[in-house]
Amino acid sequence: MMGFVFSEMWQGLRRNASMVISVILVTFLSLTFVGGAILLQLQIQSMKTYWYDRAQVAVDMCTDTSASANCAGGKATPEQIQAIEAELKGSVLSPYINQYYFENQDQAYENFQKQFAGDPITKFVKPEYLNEAFWVNMKDPAQSDILIEQLSTMPGVESVTDQRQFLDGIFEALNVASLTSIGVAAVMLIAAALLIATTIRLSAFSRRRELGIMRLVGASNRLIQAPFILEGVVSALIGSILAAGAIFGVVHFFVRGYLAPKMPFTALVSYGDAAIIAPILVVVGVVLAAAAGSVAISRYLRV
């Protein structure tokens, strides 16, 4: 019985070789988009966890050029700086703070020069233009509002800024890119399902006499349908495996080979993530092909 089913399936694959190749390619491309979208989402979540946990709250002290209402007296005095530090060490804020450090204007200027090395702007910036600041690491970055509310109105404080707000725009853009990939993948999966259904219908039409004989001798519906469904499943399986290989290729050559050396302090997706995605792609491809094939052959044969 199984020998007959596989023999019929192989004949169908040979007769419709061009359509089978089309199914493989469409399945490969659509599932590669699906895998890429999943991989991008994993990368976004990984980066969020990594950077949000390291995001600091900057308490910028007034300079001589600050326009904030708290800076009416000009540059923050040593007494005002000591008052801010006392608040950070106090019983109200200290339970929420992991650690903090103070950066004076000379240190800020040195860091600025390193960060923008080679940029012409470094020639026009002087230490007195830069803010002295307390850099605060919160135990829970989501509780930064407590620090902002407590310190924003204190004399000598120009602003209190949670660095996570600068990350939100980046992650929002990445999410849009991920959703776009999912949308393209959904359209291509529909195209793959329609192509699988069309291939199976053509295969059934080309063997309509054989199918009529099988019905006359009492072959069951499942026996008649099985070779056609397997044709779609095998084609989609090959495309799924190629898509899984493409995801591993992206991780190996692009993420680990290109991005990792350039971004050594960033959490990037790994081979383990690709290993999670690969079976998902194979299952999606096989289920899609089986469902499309089942619908196509049942409608055509009316059995």
TrEMBL record:
Membrane topology field: Multi-pass membrane protein
Top-rank lineage group of the source organism: Bacteria
Coiled coil regions, renumbered to chain: none
Entry keyword set: Cell cycle, Cell division, Cell membrane, Membrane, Transmembrane, Transmembrane helix
Transmembrane segments: 182-205, 226-255, 275-297
Compartments (UniProt record): Cell membrane
Location (main, coarse): membrane
All copies of domain ABC3 transporter permease C-terminal, residue ranges: 184-297
One Pfam family cited in the UniProt record for this chain: FtsX
Keyword Magnesium: no
Record-annotated FtsX extracellular domain positions: 56-160
InterPro entries on file: ABC3_permease_C (IPR003838), FtsX (IPR004513), FtsX_actino (IPR047929), FtsX_ECD (IPR040690)
Record function comment: Part of the ABC transporter FtsEX involved in cellular division.
Family under the similarity heading: Belongs to the ABC-4 integral membrane protein family. FtsX subfamily.
Assembly description: Forms a membrane-associated complex with FtsE.
Protein name: Cell division protein FtsX
Lineage: Bacteria, Bacillati, Actinomycetota, Actinomycetes, Micrococcales
